[in-house]
Design brief:
Structural class: mainly alpha
Largest sheet: none
GO cellular component, one term: plasma membrane
Order of helices and strands: HHHHHHHHHHHHHH
Low-confidence stretches: 1-14
Number of helices: 14
Shape: globular
CATH topology: Growth Hormone, Chain: A
CATH superfamily: MFS general substrate transporter like domains
InterPro entries: MFS, MFS_dom, MFS_Efflux_Transporters, MFS_trans_sf
Subcellular location: Cell membrane
GO molecular function: transmembrane transporter activity
Mean pLDDT: 84
Domain Major facilitator superfamily (MFS) profile: 19-393
């Protein structure tokens, strides 16, 4: 039996890092599961007799249910031990992957993605608050950076490996390959996570009271535009690379690998800036991502430049989560579960809106319209962040 990593009330001890690592693997699997359709968009669409824009809604539907789950999870689970709640979310992820791999039609695929959305929203809503209980206060930023290494890893390898393996074993085989990893992760939670009892019950009223804080409300709106701008482009990156840059499957995999590997740099950069210059980081993100998106339209026919631009975009993509979650931990430390629920709902809602918005533009205006729309959303996010003073908790 693995030694417990916390006291009965969930206080941190020196052995909590195994639990943090188990959550890191969950993050990697969540990211891989949620965004794998990006690298497999075309074959999934062809197999299920759907358009690329329609198949992109498979990301939107998971986002919709993630929004609902993130808002309701802390209310519905009440005082349940957070260890068992996190394990339930991981079990939902396992079930959704099996359903996706066996989906006979587009309807079943969407239902499976909805179940995945429940897992995503529930896990992310609790993750920051759980991390704050697993490690001492002075180690929270480090633990968050470790957890988001899972995001960087998935971003680096899930898309290129998914794209490559999809050409060898089909898109269904790619999702089957994730199943045993998630099953192992579920067992790891069982042994590594400490008992995390909850002594309080969140309510919708408590969520609203947090949202009434002006600096937090402004931050939430900025989050929505930042992530919507990013994912209205990212969701349809493969069609862009296929039609605009004219890449084959092998080069597609290489491009996704470049984009993903840059995420490790983004995680490092995010961790460094978030400690004392989180507002600077939040301003850099939409600025650079919007400019890169427009630059792709201008230089999209030059493979080398495309690779460089995707590397920059990939770094900013992983830094987004680190930056905004660090902002929450620094400015909402008195209500981490409520703030966590709301910001996760905002992020997932933004992914939903961004993917849907990009899909509509793709089907009606083409890929150029999708990318211009993405850059416009990023510009609005930058205006909302402004100098950053209005995003900070009053002294």
């Amino acid at each position: 039996m693995v030694q417990k990593t916390s006291t009965a009330n969930g206080s941190p001890t020196a052995n909590s890092w195994g639990a943090v690592l188990s959550m890191t693997l969950s993050v990697a699997m969540l990211i891989a599961s949620e965004f794998m359709p990006v690298s497999l968009l075309t074959p999934i669409a062809e197999s299920l007799d759907a358009t690329a824009g329609q198949t992109g809604q498979a990301i939107s539907v998971s986002g919709f249910f993630a929004v609902a789950a993130s808002l309701l999870i802390t209310t519905l689970v009440g005082k349940l031990n957070r260890k068992w709640v996190l394990m339930a979310m991981t079990a939902c992820m396992l079930a959704s992957l099996v359903l996706i791999a066996t989906a006979p039609n587009f309807t079943v695929l969407m239902a499976a993605r909805a179940l995945l959305g429940v897992c995503i929203g529930g896990f992310w809503a609790l993750a920051t608050a759980v991390i704050m209980r697993l490690v001492p206060a002075e180690k929270v930023s480090k633990a968050l950076a470790v957890m988001y290494t899972g995001q960087a890893t998935a971003a680096a390898f899930a898309a290129p490996i998914g794209s490559y393996l999809g050409g060898l074993i089909g898109w269904r085989g790619v999702f089957w390959a994730l199943v045993p990893i998630v099953a192992i992760n579920l067992l790891w939670h069982w042994f590594a996570l400490p008992s995390l009892p909850s002594s309080s019950r969140q309510s919708l009223k408590s969520l609203l009271s947090v949202l009434k804080r002006p600096y937090f409300a402004r931050g939430i709106v900025a989050v929505i535009f930042t992530f919507a701008g990013a994912f209205s482009m990212f969701t349809y990156l493969r069609p862009f690379l296929e039609t605009f840059t004219s890449l084959d499957v092998g080069m597609l995999s290489l491009m996704f690998l470049v984009l993903g590997c840059a995420g490790f740099m983004g995680t490092w950069l995010g961790g460094k800036l978030a400690n004392g210059r989180v507002i600077l980081l939040l301003k850099i993100l939409p600025t650079v991502m919007g400019l890169v998106t427009l630059a792709l339209l201008g230089f999209g026919h030059i493979v080398l430049i495309v690779a460089m631009l995707l590397g920059v975009w990939g770094a900013m993509n992983t830094a987004m989560s680190v930056g905004w979650m660090s902002w929450v931990s620094q400015n909402m430390d008195d209500a981490p579960e409520a703030a966590g629920s709301l910001i996760v709902a905002a992020i997932q809602g933004a992914i939903l809106v961004g993917a849907a918005f990009g899909g509509v533009l793709l089907d009606h205006l083409g890929i150029t319209g999708t990318f211009v729309g993405s850059a416009a959303l990023s510009a609005i996010a930058l205006l909302l962040i402004g100098s950053g003073r209005k995003l900070l908790k009053p002294a």
